[in-house]
Design goal:
single chain; 455 residues; alpha/beta; eight-stranded mixed sheet; six-stranded parallel sheet; 14 strands; binds uridine-5'-diphosphate-xylopyranose
Length: 455
């Protein structure tokens, strides 16, 4: 099939490249000229493991452009809108990029049937809204209403950054919502190789042995839109539940890791997303839970469980600062080293990263903050140079003379640091392990004061 993907962020680019790998002819469009220039050189503008390899494998089926006119909208079978929907200050998503792309597409529609798919996480009802934008843009350009030449679908994305290629090629489900059954048929055909899992896997990312087919959920537009929000809210609630329990375990002398293992083995609960720590960050959980709360208000209802998950989450970031205050008494003039800056390992993304809030609060209290990260420092220097954090490429440079070390992101290399050597460069051997990730026994043996979350 011929596919246009508008937006080359984590979701759009991964989707476009994966579809090209599966044999579709794909054009990826972005208004950001710098990104498209990089992609045209065969380089990925974001850090995502496996993405450069998949771009190389798919290169004969994929083109990159900044121009709607050269993307031949009127010959496409499917157009994905996968642009950014960042949060506005009131928690509702900024839909200006969705609007601009829907209008640009609508102006260029002709009698050829095309399915326009909302892949961005958009508020409930956006499928209808995009339909209206397409119709209006078409009418303004052509002077007549379009007659049945397009259908709108919602096809939410569940990929995790850091394992985006794996999640796209081997998804746990595909959700398609549409009022027009033609849209469901076209998208089912588009995804056939994924549904049947009969494509040949890239050598660097073999298919999991147990995976033979992927379930599909077809439903109406609003249900598909809500599935995305409900999934992210539920995962956020699981994490915040673990963090809430961690507050109690540390008081009563229990260990949150054992408690969560003990409940996670119950298959009704499941072991994943129960890791206590400094809470979630990233582009989705914070934004989507805020959007759910804000949507519920529009309908005159409240979502106290989702709101509580948010409150617990943002409180976890304060826990780090409170712990440092308790241990060091005075933060003014102290050096705090942050190991990791990205919101989670295997990504360079800093959106809603706990590191940013933690650094801001420490700086406000007069501390000096030194941070390191294997891949996120490029973004840190680009977007957060004004923050006042000193960024170091080498962990040892960040750790020099530190009064405390905070493990912010569980990058595997931090577990393997020469912790005996680290101790010799620190001013004070205090570790606050924000992810319960480091070897507690070994560090204690080496003479560190180790503080984990809820242990
Ligand atoms: C998430 C969803 O998992 C994905 O399905 C959706 O499409 C986008 O949002 P992502 O933001 O990439 O993906 O990261 P994820 O792996 O879900 O982690 C989110 C945050 O939760 C990270 O900050 C992570 O550190 C934190 N987390 C995760 C915990 O604190 N504890 C856990 O047990 C799991």
């Amino acid at each position: 099939m011929k596919v246009l993907v508008v937006g080359t962020g984590y979701v759009g680019l991964t989707t476009g490249v994966a579809l090209a790998y599966l044999g579709h002819r794909v054009v990826c469009l972005d208004v950001d000229e710098e990104k498209i220039a990089l992609l045209n050189e065969g380089k990925a503008p974001i850090y995502e493991p496996g993405l450069p390899e998949l771009i190389a494998l798919a290169k004969n089926n994929i083109q990159f452009t900044t121009s709607y006119d050269s993307s031949e909208i009127n010959t496409c079978d499917v157009i994905f809108i996968a642009v950014g929907t960042p949060s506005l200050p009131d928690g509702s998503p900024d839909l200006s990029q969705v609007k601009a792309s829907a209008e640009a597409i609508g102006e260029r529609l002709d009698d050829h049937f095309v399915v326009v798919v909302n892949k961005s996480t958009v508020p409930i009802g956006s499928g209808n809204w995009v339909g209206t934008l397409l119709r209006e843009a078409y009418r303004l350009r052509k002077g007549t209403k379009p007659i049945g030449n397009y259908a709108v679908a919602s096809n939410p994305e569940f990929l995790r950054q850091g394992s985006a290629i794996f999640d796209t090629l081997y998804p746990e489900r595909i959700v398609i919502g549409a009022e027009d059954t033609r849209a469901i048929d076209v998208l089912t055909n588009l995804y056939r190789p994924l549904l049947n899992q009969d494509f040949s896997s890239p050598a660097f990312l073999p298919r999991p042995e147990e995976l033979s087919a992927v379930p599909i959920v077809t439903c109406d537009l609003a249900s598909a839109e809500l599935i995305k929000y409900a999934a992210n809210a539920f995962l956020s609630i699981k994490i915040s539940f673990a963090n809430e329990m961690a507050r109690l375990t540390s008081k009563v002398g229990a260990d949150i890791v054992d408690v969560m293992q003990g409940i996670g083995l119950d298959s009704r609960i499941g072991p994943r997303f129960l890791q206590a720590g400094i809470g979630w960050g990233g582009s989705c959980f914070g934004k989507d839970t805020a959007a759910l709360v804000s949507t519920s208000k529009e309908y005159g209802i409240t979502m106290p469980i989702v709101q509580a998950a948010r409150d617990v989450n943002y409180h976890q970031r304060l826990w780090v600062v409170d712990t440092l205050l308790r241990e060091l008494k005075i933060l003014k003039g102290r050096t705090i080293a942050l190991l990791g800056f990205a919101f989670k390992p295997n990504t360079d993304d800093l959106r809603d990263a706990p590191s940013l809030d933690i650094a801001r609060q420490l700086l406000q209290k007069g501390a000096r903050v030194a941070a390191t990260d294997p891949v996120a420092l490029g973004n840190a220097r680009r977007f957060y140079s004004e923050l006042g954090v000193a960024y170091f490429d080498e962990p040892m440079d960040a750790l020099q003379d530190a009064d405390a070390v905070v493990l912010v992101t569980e990058w595997p290399e931090y577990r393997k640091l020469d912790w005996a050597g680290v101790k010799s460069v620190l001013a004070n051997p205090l570790i606050v392990d924000g992810r319960n990730f480091l070897d507690h026994d070994e560090l204690t043996r080496l003479g560190y004061r180790y503080i984990g979350v809820g242990r």
